[in-house]
Amino acid sequence: MGADLARELAIPAETKLVLLVLDGLGGLPREAGGPTELEAAATPTLDRLAAEGVTGLLTLVAPGITPGSGPGHLALFGYDPLTHRIGRGILEALGIDLPVTPLDVAARGNFCTVDGAGRVTDRRAGRVSDATCRTLSALLDKITVDGAEVTVQPVKEHRFVVRFRGEGLSEAVSETDPQQEGQAPPKAEPLQPEAAKSARVVNAFVDAARGVLRDQHPANMVLLRGFARHPALPTLRERFGLRAGAIAVYPMYRGLARLAGMEVLPTGTTITEQLATLRDRWAEFDFFYIHVKRTDTAGEDGDFAAKARAIEEVDRALPALVALGPDVLAVTGDHSTPAALRAHSWHPVPVLLWARTCRPDTVTTFGERPCEAGGLGHLPGRELLTVMLAHAGRLTKFGA
Fold first, then answer.
1. CA atoms lying within 13 Å on the CB side of residue 334
2. Residue 176: φ, ψ to 5°
3. I need a surface site. Which of 133, 175, 236, 348 has the fewest CB within 10 A?
4. Which of 203, 228, 253 is the last residue of a domain?
5. What number of helices (H) and strands (E) belong to the chain?
6. Of 196, 228, 260, which residue is a domain's last?
7. How far apart are CA 165 and CA 89, in angstroms?
8. Which run of H or E residues covers position 205?
9. Do 263 and 356 fall into the same domain?
């Protein structure tokens, strides 16, 4: 509700906002009573910002609901993820600049490993290299099926996009990804009667892919999820008058940014290179979204220490961001990915907000337990942008 009201109250201002998203930031202790990954990391800059600013916890979708990266980011961009349900396929397609028309349905693909009985033993095929992904995607791109034109393009590591183009296709198709190992990929099923053709097309493609990849290792099968068409979203400029730039390495997050109307800025792969891009483009935009992936990757790999190191790497680079003098800086995650669970989880995500107009709370370090006592309280994720706009002087008074 706050974001909708903020749209009515938005006013111009010469202020700069930065949203830094450490993917999968929230975590869990390795042992009872121990620190989380964030609490175990040495983060002097984040701790200083937390002490000078205000902190809290975010629920990105709803209590007890585990967010995907798409819904989590939409909430951070001020959209209600329950109203705007967007499949991951379109986000990946937009992230790699794959054209999408009204005839198209796009899906996110994983190369995976299956055993002799067809059961998934590794959903990511060991995170094959980008070069392998390009080679295998080129093989799949040659597949033909009745009822649709098929295009397969590589994304990164084990990820690819498949675009189905044809009359009468629907996005209402179930996943072929069991989301856990030890099970065979399920057949795609129509979730609505009009999706029967789409399910046939998807299953024909998957069957053909199984044959094409049979002799490959470790990527000898595919999993598809996130079937989606191109949605219509009001942009951040239309809603709040923001000129927004995105600094993200992974294609899906670039796709999310494009959906929100951000200009995606070319950048390097490290946080230091990303912040150099921020510095070089600082004068051109009002709002910057910066995405860091390594925290989530380490969490999904179950590597507690690597996730803590990824957080520390960001902390060491942060002084370069602070030196630019943002009026408002928010640091948070799009969901939790505890190494203990090796997957996204429903746990609220820590958030810190730094601005000259902050009313400091009693928190002096950035971590899950300190943030429980923070002055932001327990905030719905979609309301964070409203609070940022207020601190940036970009909202007028409500009512007389």
1. 27
2. -100, 10
3. 175
4. 228
5. 14, 13
6. 228
7. 13
8. helix 196-213
9. yes
Query: For residues 141-177, b (16+ Cβ closer than 10 Å) or e, as one string?
Result: eebebeebebbbbbbbbbbbbbbbbbeebbbbbbbbb
Residue type, 224: L
Contact between residue 26 and residue 307 where contact means Cβ atoms under 8 Å apart: no
Residues 221 and 122 in one domain: yes
CATH number of the domain enclosing 363: 3.40.720.10
Same structural domain for residues 121 and 103? yes
Residue 74 included in any domain: yes
Q: What is the pLDDT along the chain (400 residues), one digit of tens a residue?
A: 677 899 999 999 999 999 999 999 999 999 999 999 999 999 999 999 999 999 999 999 999 999 999 999 999 999 999 999 888 898 889 889 899 888 999 999 999 999 999 999 999 999 999 999 999 999 999 999 999 999 999 998 999 999 999 999 999 999 999 999 999 999 999 999 999 999 999 999 999 999 999 999 999 999 999 999 988 889 999 999 999 999 999 988 998 999 899 999 999 999 999 999 999 999 999 999 999 999 999 999 999 999 999 999 999 999 999 999 999 999 999 999 999 999 999 999 999 999 999 998 999 999 999 999 999 999 999 999 999 999 999 999 999 7
By residue count, the chain amounts to 400
User: Is the residue at 67 inside a domain?
Assistant: yes
DSSP string, 265-280: PP--SSHHHHHHHHHH
Amino acid at 31: E
For 66, phi then psi, to 5°, come to -85, 120
- Residue 236 three-state SS: helix
The number of domains in the chain is 2
48 and 99 in a single domain? The answer is no
| 74 and 183, same domain (yes or no) | no
CB 228 within 8 A of CB 102: no
CA atoms within 13 A on the CB side of 321: 29
Please report whether residue 396 resides in a domain: no
3-state secondary structure (DSSP) of residue 386: helix
Same-domain check for residues 74 and 98 = no
Residues 253 and 375 in one domain: yes
How far apart CA 78 and CA 236 sit, in angstroms, is 9
Same domain for 237 and 385, yes or no, is: yes
The boundaries of the domain holding residue 100 are 90-228
